[in-house]
Amino acid sequence: MTRMKLSSCAIPGTAAYDLVSARNGQTYRVFVHIPAGEPPAEGWPVLYLTDGNAVIGTAVEAMRAQAGYPTGTNVAPGVIVAIGYPTDDPYDPLRRSWDLSPLPGKTYPPFFADGPDVKTGGGEEFLGFIEADVKPFVHSLARIDPARQSLFGHSFGGLFALFAFFTRPHAFRNWIAASPAIFWDDGLILQYRDRFLAALPQRLDTFLHFSAGEYEGDDLAPFQRQAEDAGSRLEEKKKTRTIGHARELSAELAALEEVSIRTHYETFAYETHMSVLPAAVGRAVQIAFAVRPLGYLCET
Q: What is the similarity comment for this entry (predicted)?
């Protein structure tokens, strides 16, 4: 048998660009997938994702696998933009802590011994980078439908998606917040909710999808129940309340009568906070590139 090792295994139709933010001078690695062929007359729909290094492969292949059979999957091709960092690791913990969290932020001890302090509060800066730099760059690469743009984030990324919605609700049509860290910083994001509710925008027609894994509620995953840290994990769940917070916020926003906000909360069976990521990305693809209305996903 003859074997040949390829030097790399690229994601078809996908390129990586290093963009420097004028706001903080930091370099971001932006992964962009553009489908083959001509775009629709109105332009391609776009799905933007945070934590780009961790999700770009999953998002592209979930879309490509389904878009070839739209009558059976309800998914059509679209542009995927995953915003990450110049690293081969799935995450940059320090930078995402800053980029994905709202003001005012705090300073926390290092993740590792002798490491730098962890700083939060850069969400507005990061959102400005997406709006002023990333979106125009993507528009220069392909014809885009400005009315069909979606934002996905998981964990801190889900927190960022909510922050972006509450501060710039017209920036995207669909908002997908997976396992959002609503508890973070004593529920700081709820202060942004209150400001949003105090000055509801006019002519808002949007959809928010909330989700979490089954084992982000009150119960541990089976493999965690006999572990030495089972007790501390259960205590932590009482603080984070990922499922509870997400359910409550979804219902609260859907109940508003002044504006048209459709929401849906979904629990992914058998998943933990990290294992839920591929399922949540797959759902984001179905929302962002839907051919027809999603039916049950448009209900609370």
A: Belongs to the esterase D family.
